[in-house]
């Protein structure tokens, strides 16, 4: 009985560790700082929760700030801000937009995805709805490997830049990494086996002229 329990536990642990390790290795050559990353036309910014008053959490503010930095360094032309808006009083994309405007990003260069409920959904919709072929992903280091793996597997040629702009609490990092380990297993299953469809809709291409230079600004 004890042997069986140990075997099952070992299998379960392996199932959790292998996907996380695989995506971490996958991401190594695809991550760079804002200063060193190659320009692309779009940055995808992932939602990360709101306070009760509807304002962005520190994690989300860091993601928007890092994306704004990319924009002002002329690494990208547009910011695709993707988050959850399933209920009226919870609107991640709108909060992200408001914060980006405060940072000085022009409204015309901000695109909102209101159905980015999960990382999988954001990556899927970036390609299917917004016709994004390549992008720089903006999120924290603990989340970036999964995001990079998903977007690349779902047809978006993606690189990433970390949005770790402050020292996060240790207990928060422990929780986020534990959750990320489970989420990475789910992501691998979804992209290779389950193939779920997110909320879709009409195609809304961010660009109509694919020949525009990555650094051009109108």
Write the layout of secondary structure elements.
Elements: H1 2-27, E1 42-46, H2 58-72, E2 78-82, H3 92-102, E3 110-113, H4 119-128, E4 134-139, H5 144-153, E5 157-162, H6 170-194
Parallel strand pairs: 1-2, 1-4, 2-3, 4-5
Structural summary, described in words:
The model has no long low-confidence stretch (mean pLDDT 92). This protein has helices at 2-27, 58-72, 92-102, 119-128, 144-153, 170-194, and strands at 42-46, 78-82, 110-113, 134-139, 157-162. It is an alpha/beta fold. Helix 1 packs across helix 6 (170-194).
CATH architecture identity: 3-Layer(aba) Sandwich
Number of structural units classed as domains: 1
Give the structural class: alpha/beta
Give the name of the CATH superfamily: HUPs
Uncertain runs: none
Biggest sheet record: 5 strands, parallel
Give the % helix: 40-55%
Beta strand %: 5-15%
| Nearest-integer average pLDDT | 92
Work out the helix count: 6
Through-space gap between termini: 69 Å
Order of helices and strands: HEHEHEHEHEH
CATH topology: Rossmann fold
Number of DSSP E strands = 5
Query: Briefly, what CATH class?
Result: Alpha Beta
| Largest sheet, spatial ordering of strands | 3-2-1-4-5
Shape summary: globular
Radius of gyration: 18 Å
